[in-house]
Every structure is written in C-alpha cells, then in structure tokens.
Amino acid sequence: MNKKDNFLKGILKENPLFVSLLGMCPSLAVTTSVENALGMTVAVVFVLVLSNFIISLIMSSEKLAALVKPVRIPVYIVVIATLVTVVEMLMHAYLINLYKSLGIFIPLIVVNCIILGRAEAFASENKPVDSIIDGLGMALGFGVAIVTVSIFREFLGTGLLTIWGNLQINLNFIFDFLRMSPVGMFTQPAGAFISLGFILAVIAAVSAKRQEKQLKQAKEVKANV
Amino acid sequence: MSQEMHLTSPNVPSKRNLLIFSASLLILLIASAFLYGIYVFAVALVALVSGGLVELIFAKVRKTELDISWIVPPLVVTLMLPPTIKLWVVAVATVFGVFFGKSVFGGFGKNIFNPAVVGVLFVTISFPSMITAAEWIHPSIDSFSGATPLNMLNAGGDFTYSFGDLIFGNVPGAIGETFRIGIIILGVALLILKVADWRIPVFYLGSVLVFTALGYWILPDVFPDPILSIFVGGLLFGAFFVATDPVSSPLDSKGRMIYGIGLAFFTVLIRNFATFQEGVIFAIIIMNAIAPLIDDSLNKEETKDEVVEEVAQ
Fold first, then answer.
1. ipTM of the complex
2. Chain A closest CA to B124's CA: distance in Å?
3. pTM to 2 decimals?
4. For a FRET experiment, which of B12, B79, B180, B291 has its CA 20 to 30 Å from that of B280?
C-alpha cells in the first residue's frame, strides 16, 4: 500500500464513522453545529496523529515492544489520555467558547474507539511515518463525516450554519421561500439519530449499486474471456 | 420465504376492516367540518396527497402493489392536528410519519410504530408553537380561544365548558377529537364489528379513570376530576381509533390488557407531570415500543418451542 492509498482509505473506503460505525457517541453529541464538529475534528486530528506516532515508536523498538505487549491497552490509554489532557488544557486556555460548548466530550476523546482502534489495528504493526499518515487520514475522515452530519442537523434545525465564531451563514431565506420554519427536532438527540441513519442508508444504497455494477462488469469480462 | 412471513404482523387487518375503519374516520372528518369549517377538508386533502405520494413512490421502488391501507395514516394525522394548522406542517407530518413510521420498515403490516402517531409526534416536538399552543377555533362563538378544555382542566382553575358542549364537540380542540359522542358511537360500532379489539379501549379508558381517581383522592391539587379527564383532549379518539391499530399493538388478549393499562399510566403521567398538555400520542409511541416485549414475556415458552422445531426441520 503506497502512502496516498494509506491516507485516502481513512476518508473514503474505511471511513471510521460511515463505514466502520466507530465513534458514534461524540458524532451524535457534538454535531449540533458545524462549529462544534470542526472543533471536535481539530482535537481528534491532534490526538490521533500524535497517539499513532508515539505508539508506533514504542512498538517499533523490539525491546520496548516485548515489554509492552502484555499490558499494551493500559499503555495506549496512558498515551492517549496524556494527549487529550494537553488538548483540553490548550482549548481551555485559547478557545474558551468552544471548550464550553464541547464540554464533557473533550475528555471523552480518551475512550473514543477510533483512537484506540487505530492504535491497536495499525500503529502497533506499522512504521511511525505510515502511522502518522494513517492517523491523519482517519481523523480527517471522521471530521468529514461529523461535519456532514452537523451541516444537515444545523441547517434543518435552525436554518443557520455556524462555521467559526461570528462567521455564520444564514440560510433561513430557503425556509422563508418555502413558507416553512426550521424543524427544531433536528437539534435534539432524536434528530441526530434520524439524520445519521438517513445518511448511512443513502451511502449503503449507493455502494450497493456500485457493487452490483462491478459484479456485472466482472461477469461480462469473464464471458468475453 | 419463512423469514418474510415472520416480519409481517400476524394480525394484519383485512380489506373489509380497513374500509370500515376509513369510512368511520371520514364520518368524523365530515362532522368536524360542521364544527371548524371547510378548511379541514384542505388539511385532509394535503395529508392524503402527500401520504399517497410517499406510498406510491415506495411501491414503485420496492415493486410492490399499492394496497388500500395507504388511506388510513393521512386521515388519522388530519384528525389529530389542530384546525388552524398550516398546510405545510400537515405535509411534513404525513410524509415523515408514512416514510419513517411505515415505509422504511417494509410497508403495511411490518411497522413497529403507528405511522400517524410518528408524524404527529414529530411535528409536536418540532413546532410546539403551532401544535400545543395553537390558536384554537371555538365553534360556538366563532372566534379564537387560547384554552382547550384540556388546558383548562390541567391548569386547575374553573372549568367553564358544559358537559353537553364537551360531548357534542362545541369546544376548541384538534380536528377529530372533539365530536366525542360520534367517536364513542363509531368506536363501539368498530368494537362490535370486530374491527378493533375491545380490550384496548376498555382497559385504556378504565385505567385512566382508576389512576386519575386514585390521584384525585390522594393529591387533589395535582390531579383533575377523573370523569372530566376522560372527556377532554384526544383521549377518546386515541383510545378508540389510534391505540387499537392491530399491527402495532400486542398479539394476544392478555398482552392487550397490559397494553391498555400501560397506555393509561403514561397518559396520566404525562398529562399531570410533564410540560406537554396531552400525553396520548407519547403514551402510544412508548407502548408501541414496549408491545413486542409484552408479547415476548407472555409467550416465552411457546416461541422457544417454535425455534426448536424450526431448527429441527
């Protein structure tokens, strides 16, 4: 696998949220506005890239790896928790509004299954550089997914798209044009489940159709041969 | 093939039952037109067109036939909304209810929740200003009024509506819920014709009476008058026409008694302790979710035997 494939697989083929359904808790909880989703993405990129790097460094030295292997989950958690604490303190110092609106979900990155999953599945068996690329791809894939969900939810729920701070796009004219008002339920947890389920269903339908096509093509090729 | 069979509820209503049921809903709609004006037909038309379109597209995509059952959810949605409702809210309620309540589960007979209630619940939570705090039409003085009999009873002040007005629908309320004498007569007719199971409305209304009477006896400040509480809000319509839906209610008679008692429990709880005034739709959704569990816990050994037999075969 070359480096480009390694990076892209996290965004498309093995997207942690849309394909593997990992990290559902933060993706349902923080997608109430685009700003929250972007903030979460930044935090996850930071933690995942560095944790992948550090863990693959630990595991690539043979002596350390032999020592760590029997207790590797606690070791991973210590590494991840350290990084999350750093993120939390940085956000508290410089992005106080985001810190307040994300709340408990920043410390909860520690138990986000994407991060532990990548540490166990990829970083422990691969070289540091590859692990950084994998972490970046996976974190960005997660980011793309939660930003997509949050665009749906914020637009349908309030008619606004809050990009960052005061930068806010007001799309209420679409609702005014249709003589409707925003559907408040999409800002609530039930709306998160409905919109995520709907997006997953569309993705499943599209990929099923594509697979069908590929099967057909493969059959035609076989027939020609 | 056998898997297909298991997905469908064993007591899907027959075509005759559906026709009788739809006819009685239509009678209620016509009766409400006398109370609230011709606008209710516009509401019904929007609901029928939007619900019908969803079912038609679904039938085309899944390559199934469009059966007669498409007519029921839009009519029930219409009858549960306030008469001053905006037409696009009706369309949103019907489309959401039919799509997420019925079509995604595989269509008629396979739904877990009552599709009409799903739609009404969605708009109730999304647009509370238009549903629960709507401007209610008062039929006799022909003007708007802020308080339905249910609001008045829950507020605990003086109850100024007369019992006769309450029975004949001469009060503000949702489109189909106020013509109560008609609801009772048609509802009992449905029970006699065996379109609906008598246990659900009897146990539902009886338990509401018992629970509210108990509450009234212990905490008279919190609970309203038990007899009046049966005759306000959407309770009668919900008990006779919505909760009796055979697809989403439990399968056997014992389960249906428990179902009725559970409905009453949640209705009384939400009416008297929650921020929403009316608890009927919430109670029906909650009990729809619990209904499969009731079935399961009552027929544990039976289902086990079936599974063993299937494996043996």
1. 0.74
2. 9
3. 0.81
4. B12
